[in-house]
User: Fold this.
Amino acid sequence: MRDELPVERLRSRCDPSALGCTTSQEARGLETIIGQDRAVKSLRFGLGIQDVGFNIYVSGMPGTGRTTAVKGFLEEVARDRPVPDEWCYVTNFRDSSRPKALRLPRMQARQLRADMKGLVAGARRDVRNAFESEEYGTRRQEVAQAFERQKEEMFTQLSEHARQEGFVIQASTVGLMTVPVKEGQPLTEEQFVALGEEEKAAILEKRDKLGGVIEATLRRSKRVEKSAGEALQKLDHDVALYALSHLIQDLKEKYQGLPDAVAYLNFVQEDMLENLDQFRPETEEQASSAPWKAEPPDGAWRKYEVNALVDSADLKGAPVVIELNPTHSNVFGRIEQESVYGALVTDLTLIREGAIHRANGGYLVLPAEELLRNAFTWDTLKRALANRQIAVEDVSEQMGVVTTKTLRPEPIPLSVKVILIGQPETYYLLRAYDEQFSELFKVKADFDTRMDRTADSERGYAAFVCAVCENEELRHLDRSALARLVEHGSRLVEDQEKLSTRFGEIADIIREASYYTTQENVPLVSDVHIKKAIEERFYRSNLIVERFQEMIQRGTILIDVTGAKVGQVNGLSVVDMGDISFGQPSRITASIALGREGLMDIEREARMGGPIHTKGVLILSGYLAEKFAQDKPLSVTARLVFEQSYGGVEGDSASSTELYALLSSLSDLPIKQGIAVTGSVNQKGEVQAIGGVNDKIEGFFEVCKAKGLTGEQGVMIPETNVPNLMLKDAVVDAVRQGQFHVWPVRSIDEGIELLTGVAAGARQEDGSFPEGTVSSQVDRRLRELAEALVEFGEKDEEGKGESADEALSEAQG
Assistant:
């Protein structure tokens, strides 16, 4: 019979003196991510290699400190990287709907924007003053008068020529008219009609010739007017150029090392000179039509503004941008519109940057699951990484929605390392169903939920506590509290040789313990406060646990913790409520009858059992067949069931429990009800490890404690689960006092001996089992059932034969 576990193996204690400090305040600061050597190595590789597609997927469970750790790691790496260039959007004077992207060195985008504002203000002032100056007015008048004199001379010569031909020229609403003159007086219509035919014909012939001269003169007049306009335009151009040249030239000299900026300034100068009317004072007619213009006030001047999209003036290295809400506009920017007199308008000043613009030249961190919920964001990100450029687009266009005319800014070259943070399941789904994912995210950084429990990792826990307390101004922990926290880290992963890396939960314990310390007005957090924080967190969520225990105490749920019964065992399961998990005992029973059906799983028949549970029950058939059916058939019908189970049953951790109930029923040997059982079993009868061992033991302990500890109660667990034990102090103390026990077993034989107090019995050379053992009684019962079934079958055949003879006699009679 197996001995129970000694107290020291029920929980792995942490020696406070081995932590190297008396308080967390003395612990050295964090230098790297704790317990994530594999992830750190992957991150260093992914961040170091600059080839296309080597972006990083950080895989790990929530609460392991992935985001915080990655942020700190990236900020450390980014400090040594150069500050990226800045980007701004300026007007494309060849196509205003496609603003041009301008690349500038650090702090130059903001400066160019200010310089352009100064240029526009100076241009508006100087050019307007030049146009309003007396000198300009005099020169304009001189030019106009010179051309006016040319026109007057042409029309004077025309009039003289007409007079010599016997005509006068008169202006009308439809042009110039030629009127014949006789004896110095213009002829009226009546006088012209009264003339002789020859005279009228001569006058008409002269008028036709004169008409050609008039047309030639008018054409010359138009050319003179055009020349006058060109001369005045050249005058305006020269005056404006003189006023602008010093302003533009100063900026060209300032940005002479930036060819793109100089080219842009040339375009600005050219556009200003082509649109000089905007410098003139607005007339009353223009002002009256302003409310009907679909542009904002001073809209004509906004085309000269510079949209400093990315400003890196405040950076001290490469940018690290974390976008926790990766909508399309938050990541890739947007083009806003504003309402002006009831119409929606936009311009380059309304282009807004996204997280990827700010991260360009550095690192962009995105939550994978949130990113995938925004389908357009994910597709656009893949396109941007593949094409290595950022395009600010209206997402409604991708949806096929008809939109108003908008801008299409020039794409910006992209050089960014994208880090996705998500769960392992998301990574494998993307690998399986998105063919582009493996090409774009070639580096995986796996954040484990556990790490080896060594002296270094325990001191790393202390350093982590120090960092949390310092950053959040919490009360520091004494070394007893640090030791208790280390032990809790092992309990979280249910492993005496491991520590949890779910630092989010560890930090919450520290915060709560610090709160209780503040309430008590003591300087340091002790192990008492850590224990209280852990227990209070459980208490706030354990209402349903208390309800279960109450129903067991009242007898609503039937659980026996004393005495012995045939075919009945207390099995253990774990209920996971999300925020807490707890162990719950269940009564498992087996019934035996004559038949050939074999093992019948009532849970499966009722469609309440899952596939893993069904597999565990079927394994029992294999065990019975190998051990007891070598010399006879298994002629038995056995039914297994979880009593008072009204939900689904899944998992194979109760398969050994079900086998014990079956063996008890077959051997007619009672099982001690004070011992609860957990563990799966294979066909060879070996008891295998299960999960949730601490919760299961503590759950049964609480039931026994509520009903009264007798000193004979305890839990039987697989021996392979012993390293997983991190039991609560109450259980450990009860074991120390002999009121509760934990037995490890390796096989079904060891377990049945403990449960029944009868030797299991191994098969002898002759194939039999020793008398008085559990196996001999099971073997005898199975043989009796097989023989009974054969005998019953023979009698049944005889009964059928007699009935046939009687029927034949009656038919013959």
